[in-house]
Structure to design on (830 residues):
């Protein structure tokens, strides 16, 4: 048992932060036992670690990140999407046929993810099985609750990054089978997006989903181009989500729809019916000029929204920066589209912690029984201007840097 | 004489970076003597400091920053502008009647500015003379080339932050007189913006401008509200810039027009006629939902644009983050307004270094004779993915943190 003394902030719900100034959080083994403003007498003899004026918050979840694009973060960001993909991203992804390259990158990626306070993630790999296995092993070894996908692309892709349909299906099943019983890093089906997958491939992925009870992550209505292209490719599908529904890919959880910028009402209906999550990647979608998610109105329609760094279309691994970018972008959206509303910091923080955490086991908040996956943040306050705990958290998400993360806990252990 | 061995990047012009991989920069006393790919024989015996794979870039200039708002950075950023000003900013600015508070804040602000690589700045103070003097002294002591303004507000302001017109004029002249012969931190006239200044006040400031040959900084067409309000207040003025022109405030340099989001063609014409600078503060204008500057089309009209952090409407002191935000915002602008274009990283970097530097003496580039005001940046490259020097600079501006600034030089001296 460990007791930590500090201020504590987590999301109670979408509209409320639970905030304790200088309280005690009792951690038994790997889970939160309780939070107390005055320490109960039964704990009086226990060791107390005093984090003074630091603040304890839940570790973040990153629900859309391309690990193989990690070497490319913050580069060629003024290019247009097509040039960025064809000149940078696709040639980079092709390098993962070299497992030594994959080892170097995925080890560095995993360490940097944790350094930035992300302890749960939904991760894209590439089309390559050996490299994808390495990515899974890196995350499993570090006990990162995660969903990892070997990517499928069998049409409309560069020759050096295109799979034969049958091979793609066979390799996907091998990948799923190999990792299905992992404790932390689990497989998820990952068709890149509708324009790069034949319907035959998607249907076979649907069978794998059913056979192994695995979920799916993909890009959904990310751009106007992608939305229109998807509908063109799949005769008889009225929207992007319907393609995956018809292929039988939405019947197993989690369902992770990255971007979700231009959804029709039917896309929204299908996502909600299958308990899916829309993933907001604010910096990414503006870096590659795809558009801005309607965060406010989607929240008001009870769509579940979580946050993604989308490395390397996004430039920061730190999800905290995406929380502030989500608020800022919602203001721009409301400025240009009068029927949209801006979102609050509380809503954005909720998306990146408690809401995203629902995809995993007992993470994202400090309610009793949840894993103590936590960050201790500090050095964010000036002597001449004292802040409330929730203000320290807001400043961290807006103006903070990775050096403001002073301690990291995963399942109760400092790492 | 000092010789530094490293890669070197600076702006040649708006459209070109000057990039040297592992070269030698010779600094004589406080200025750049030259950059050499091979060291000339005359320097062979000189001491060479090898920065290995680090990159040397010019220190940044921040041309719009509110020092008194420093304690408020990254707070209440999901509020609307009016609430943010009335509930947070104005009450905070009123605290600067206490000179001890001013000392604490302005010392911390100056240190943090330098830490973030900004060595030249145009700074707003508050209406208070003693506090404004302290701000000037802090910057002068650190040899920061800067323009500092005691703020004027005599109408439409909260009672606790409103000046009597005559007092405002008298105090402004005292402030200008006191600092006019400073070596580094010089006075600049700083009417907050047209809606908070009577025309009588502006005209008298015009006389001070002429008498002491001092320039002006203010907020120009920052928001639709401000643009319309300004025109209402000043009968017979067709646009915001014209108010200051009529008041005789545009005849002395520098002229610094912060934000410049909704300029009419007349605003643009007047700004250019007086050799003024439009200051882009990308995060700030989206945090407070004012709008997005038309960076691309203004550049194409040869408007001089520099960059500002606009603390505390902006959340980062580091100008490098505003360079990347400027590119990202220009992409959003082009997405929503088809006649606008996105800008390149090279253009944004130029704005924050060489263009902004023109307001000061010999800074913003490493041409011969320029002061060696420089940052040495590093730890931005992965072993498995080597980068060109200009890519390291781009990654710094997109994904970097203050810890990536390894050394800082001001006038040839490491600080």
């Amino acid at each position: 048992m460990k007791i930590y003394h500090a201020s504590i902030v987590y999301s109670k719900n979408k509209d409320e932060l639970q905030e304790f100034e200088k309280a005690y959080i009792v951690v038994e083994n790997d889970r939160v036992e309780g939070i107390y403003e005055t320490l109960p007498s039964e704990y009086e003899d226990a060791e107390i670690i005093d984090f003074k004026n630091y603040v304890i918050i839940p570790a973040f979840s990153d629900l859309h990140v391309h690990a193989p694009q990690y070497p490319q973060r913050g580069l060629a960001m003024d290019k247009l999407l097509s040039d960025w993909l064809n000149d940078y991203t696709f040639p980079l992804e092709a390098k993962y046929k070299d497992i030594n390259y994959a080892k170097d990158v995925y080890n560095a990626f995993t360490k940097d993810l944790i350094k930035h306070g992300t302890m749960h993630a939904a991760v894209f790999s590439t089309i390559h099985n050996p490299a994808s296995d390495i990515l899974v092993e890196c995350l499993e070894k570090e006990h990162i609750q995660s969903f990892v996908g070997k990517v499928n692309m069998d049409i409309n892709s560069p020759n050096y990054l295109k799979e034969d349909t049958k091979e793609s299906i066979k390799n996907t099943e091998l990948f799923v089978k190999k990792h299905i019983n992992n404790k932390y890093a689990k497989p998820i089906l990952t068709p890149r997006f509708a324009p790069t997958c034949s319907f035959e491939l998607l249907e076979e992925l649907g069978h794998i989903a059913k056979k192994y009870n695995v979920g799916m992550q993909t890009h959904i209505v990310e751009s106007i181009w992608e939305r229109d292209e998807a509908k063109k490719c799949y005769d008889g599908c009225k929207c992007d989500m319907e393609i995956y529904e018809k292929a039988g890919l939405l019947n197993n959880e989690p369902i992770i729809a990255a971007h979700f910028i231009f959804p029709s009402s039917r896309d929204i209906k299908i996502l909600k019916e299958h308990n899916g999550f829309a993933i907001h990647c604010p910096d990414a979608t503006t870096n590659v000029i795809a558009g801005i998610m309607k965060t406010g109105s989607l929240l008001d329609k009870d769509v579940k929204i979580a946050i993604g760094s989308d490395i390397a279309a996004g430039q920061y691994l730190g999800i905290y920066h995406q929380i502030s970018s989500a608020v800022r972008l919602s203001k721009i959206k409301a400025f240009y589209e009068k029927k949209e509303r801006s979102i609050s910091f509380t809503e954005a923080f909720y998306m990146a912690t408690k809401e995203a955490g629902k995809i995993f086991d007992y993470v994202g908040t400090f309610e009793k029984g949840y894993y103590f996956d936590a960050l201790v943040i500090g050095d964010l306050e000036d002597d001449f201007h004292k802040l409330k705990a929730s203000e320290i958290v807001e400043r961290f998400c807006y103006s903070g840097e990775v050096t403001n993360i002073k301690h990291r806990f995963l399942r109760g252990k400092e790492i």
Notes: Chain B has two domains: 2-58+364-414, 60-357.
